[in-house]
Design brief:
Number of helices: 5
Distance between the termini: 33 Å
Shape: globular
Number of domains: 1
Largest sheet: 4 strands, mixed
Structural class: alpha/beta
Helix content: 25-40%
Strand content: 5-15%
Order of helices and strands: HEHHEHEEH
Length: 142
């Protein structure tokens, strides 16, 4: 699983200076291998609330950053939001904000940042999206 991920990611031709403006959201703050669908219980046990709140703060915080997030991660964010709704009612509440065309992939602008849904880099479907992601990055950086 790691080789296709890294091979596909490298096709974006990102440089270290892009990190200030471009982010790819992952919910775990620990290295992983394999597929979370093999053990969803373990995946949710490994989530760290402090890390999740940091992600939420970065998305909300402005700073002209472009965030890419896979559909599976978005779905897990919704589950996490529901789980912590009473304890942290604002956590990922931007997932409920109006966005563009509901028939399109998730895309939302918030406080000068933008969040766009993409395929996961380990998915074969990402091949058809690499050029679009790179175009989004180039447009964001200009």
């Amino acid at each position: 699983m790691g080789v296709p991920f890294h091979r596909n990611f490298s096709k974006l031709r990102l440089e270290p200076e892009h990190a200030k403006y471009i982010s790819f959201i992952e919910l775990l703050d620990v290295p992983t291998t394999g597929n979370k669908s093999e053990n969803k219980k373990l995946f949710f046990e490994l989530t760290d609330l402090k890390h999740l709140r940091k992600i939420d703060g970065l998305v909300r915080g402005g700073g002209h950053k472009l965030f890419f997030v896979s559909g599976g991660v978005l779905e897990n964010m919704k589950i996490i939001r529901k789980k912590y709704k009473n304890q942290y009612p604002d956590l990922f509440d931007w997932l409920n904000l109006p966005q563009g065309d509901p028939n399109q992939r998730f895309s939302l602008s918030i406080n000068g940042n933008k969040i766009k849904e993409i395929y996961h880099f380990s998915s074969s479907q990402i091949h058809g999206q690499i050029d679009d992601i790179r175009t989004d990055i180039d447009e964001w950086l200009t």
